[in-house]
Amino acid sequence: MGRCAGGTRILRIMRIHANPPDGTPDAPKHTFADGTNEIIGAFYAVYNELRYGFLESVYASALEIEFMERGIPYVREHSLEVRYKSRLVGMYRADFLVAARVVVEVKASRCLVDADKRQLLHYLRGTNQEIGLLLHFGPDASFHRMVFSRGS
Questions:
Q1: How far apart are alpha carbons 62 and 87 in whole angstroms?
Q2: Of 51, 74, 122, 125, which residue is most buried, by most CB within 10 angstroms?
Q3: Residues 132, 124: Cα–Cα separation, whole Å
Q4: How far apart are CA 79 and CA 6, in angstroms?
């Protein structure tokens, strides 16, 4: 658990890999109480079908289809407002906002860089959202789950 200025806390950043040796297994079984397990299941369904090599927009479109088929509520390209003293000072556009609470970013690069993780953290810090998922459709499928608490 890390501390940030102003008493805010980053509770957890988790990275999970799944590069199945035979290419057929299901997603790892996780039981996140916040509903991210359904999103992760949809992510692995898309990855297992398409594999690595497409543009982010292709994966995002496939993920949208998977969300629809699974009945997962989402908004694609959701605007996130950053406010300072109740005034709008910035806007972000998340790939998805799922169930009105989980910010989802899709990446399709060969490898993730720190800027990719910081992007999601900024989305969480600058808005009222606390839970984020970075879905990496790279050579090895992986996701990063981020929980940001403003703490009291």
A1: 36
A2: 74
A3: 7
A4: 25
CB-count exposure of residue 122 (10 Å: 0-12, 13-18, 19+): middle
Q: Is 147 helix (H, G, I), strand (E, B) or coil?
A: strand
Helix, strand, or coil (residue 85):
coil
First-to-final CA distance of the chain: 15
| Residues 87 and 70 sit within 8 Å (Cβ to Cβ) | no
Q: Which residue has the tokens 């910081």?
A: 118
Q: Which mean pLDDT values do the consecutive 10-residue runs of the chain (152 residues) have?
A: 36 38 40 77 97 97 97 94 91 93 96 94 88 96 90 58
Q: What distance lies between CA 67 and its chain's CA centroid?
A: 14
36-50 vs 56-70: helix crossing angle, rounded to 10 = 120
Both structure tokens of 96? 């998805």
pTM above 0.70, yes or no: yes
With CA atoms as reference, report the closest residue to 150 among 134, 122, 129: 129
Q: CA-CA distances (angstroms) from residue 142 to 18, 135, 148?
A: 6, 6, 20
